[in-house]
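Problem statement: downstream parser choked on a complex file, so we are re-checking the raw output for the NAP run. The parser issue turned out to be on our end (a line-ending mismatch), but while we're here, posting the original submission so the record is complete.
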Amino acid sequence: MKLRSLGDTGIMVSPLGLGTVKFGRNEQVKYPKPFEIPEDAEITNLLSLASDLGINLLDTAPAYGSSQARLGKLLPGPRDRWVVVSKVGEFFENGESRFDFSFDTTIQVVENSLRTLNMDYLDLVLIHSDGDDLRILEHEGVLDALRALKQRGLIRAHGMSSKSAEGGLRAVEEMDVVMATCNSDYLEDLPVLEAAAARNRGVLIKKGLQSGHVSGPESVAAAMDFVFSQPGVSSMIVGTINPKHLEDNVKMFDSVVK
Ligand SMILES: NC(=O)c1ccc[n+]([C@@H]2O[C@H](COP(=O)([O-])OP(=O)(O)OC[C@H]3O[C@@H](n4cnc5c(N)ncnc54)[C@H](OP(=O)(O)O)[C@@H]3O)[C@@H](O)[C@H]2O)c1
């Protein structure tokens, strides 16, 4: 897959990225079917396959259970083979989420993620919104903390995984990257994609397959066509732990989008 620019960050990403929620968490998730968290060997194979297929972008978060630890242990190849995206703000503990967007916690969370992932920098850190995007951006310390981490060279870029169009639009003003929802059932973020394209911000798409509620080749093709018809999309992050789906998705991208 031909790499695309992640806005003006200087980072090049594959147009399909691999979401890793299912590497480490199977509670309180919105997928249609229950699933077992994969064994180490299955994750190793999936990561090697992703690499062979030309995928370089991995999306993880502290709130994805053991996802970061599994990547830290199992990620193959040199560090610069991968673009690693993590998040701050959300914690998932004892079966529920809690949020902390303060300056000090943000710094600690990124330092902790680096240790867990066994890395000395993260390519991108996103604010993992609790839904109140504008309050987070205007009244919490997280944005200043991400700027400070960027200055220290611990992260290359920052952004927000937003949950409202207003928040996405503000993130486009203030940050390098926005992660927005885009599928035919959720059109609210389309103005965010337009604004990001106009400002040359990076755009990552989440829930392009409606968290697995879209399935079957024709529906997956239509979902990809919808996502990549929008302006400015850098990469669509698709979560999967099924190697056949990973392969099919790359083939589908090649035939639908090229
Ligand atoms: N920041 C946030 O607030 C946030 C929220 C949601 C998601 N995300 C990120 O975005 C990523 C994607 O979002 P998502 O996981 O909610 O949704 P998604 O990518 O729309 O859907 C993932 C689901 O689709 C299934 N799937 C993948 N390819 C398929 C195919 N070819 N045919 C049939 N089913 C297929 C997967 O099941 P199999 O495992 O069986 O393939 C999985 O259950 C996440 O992994 C995460 O990294 C971020």
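For whoever reads this later: The chain has a mean pLDDT of 97.
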